[in-house]
């Protein structure tokens, strides 16, 4: 059976609990009365009689840094307790941070300095928190978790579709009148060629008829 380590500490005023490898209740039972600053970062179960009697272990505590779940497990701060500053961290990101802060103020109604760290909070929520702070005469300081920017989307490089260069299009437009004129000249030459060819054929046939007629006349004369 593993025994709980026993610590012999000198007179201390500031203590940070970073691990749950030893009994937190035993440490506070032995040294809690002289503590002025306490930070609890260990992952406890936050249940049992110890948490219900939490403030009785720390009669002179001035500054407390604690998780929200742990604060929910303990009773409200006694009226005559000298607690001056409370830092609450690890609020669940459920979208109900304003209700949680109201619950914290109900637990610690007379704490003048309330710090809430590592939460996601919007501007609209900050507007709702301010009246709560004024109502309880508390200064609420929020430390927001920085939001990492969205990584840039990797887009495939746009490939230019093969198309006709602009200078070819310009040359084509400029050459249209010349092409039309060349086509008209071609048609005119073809028409003239057909006309000349037809006239030449007509003249040739007329010449052949006349030549044939003269031969017939000479044959008849000889007979």
TrEMBL record:
InterPro entries, sorted: LRR_dom_sf (IPR032675)
Keywords for this protein: Membrane, Transmembrane, Transmembrane helix
UniProt superkingdom: Eukaryota
Transmembrane annotation, as ranges: 165-184, 190-207
UniProt protein name: Uncharacterized protein
Source organism of the structure: Serendipita vermifera MAFF 305830
Lineage: Eukaryota, Fungi, Dikarya, Basidiomycota, Agaricomycotina
């Amino acid at each position: 059976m593993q025994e709980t380590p026993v610590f012999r500490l000198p007179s201390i005023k500031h203590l940070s609990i970073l691990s749950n490898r030893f009994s937190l209740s035993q440490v506070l039972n032995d040294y809690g009365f002289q503590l002025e600053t306490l930070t609890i970062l260990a992952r406890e179960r936050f249940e049992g009689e110890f948490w219900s009697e939490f403030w009785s272990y720390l009669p002179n505590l001035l500054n407390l840094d604690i998780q929200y779940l742990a604060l929910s497990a303990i009773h409200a701060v006694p009226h005559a307790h000298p607690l001056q500053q409370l830092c609450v961290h690890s609020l669940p990101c459920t979208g109900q941070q304003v209700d949680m802060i109201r619950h914290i103020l109900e637990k610690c109604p007379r704490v003048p300095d309330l710090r809430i760290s590592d939460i996601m909070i919007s501007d609209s929520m900050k507007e709702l928190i301010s009246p709560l702070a004024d109502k309880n005469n508390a200064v609420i300081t929020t430390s927001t978790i920085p939001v990492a920017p969205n990584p840039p989307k990797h887009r495939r490089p746009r490939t230019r579709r093969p198309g006709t260069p602009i200078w070819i299009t310009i040359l084509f437009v400029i050459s249209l009148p010349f092409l039309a004129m060349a086509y008209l000249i071609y048609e005119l030459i073809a028409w003239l060629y057909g006309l000349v060819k037809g006239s030449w054929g007509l003249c040739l046939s007329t010449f052949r008829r006349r030549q044939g007629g003269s031969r017939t006349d000479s044959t008849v004369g000889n007979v």
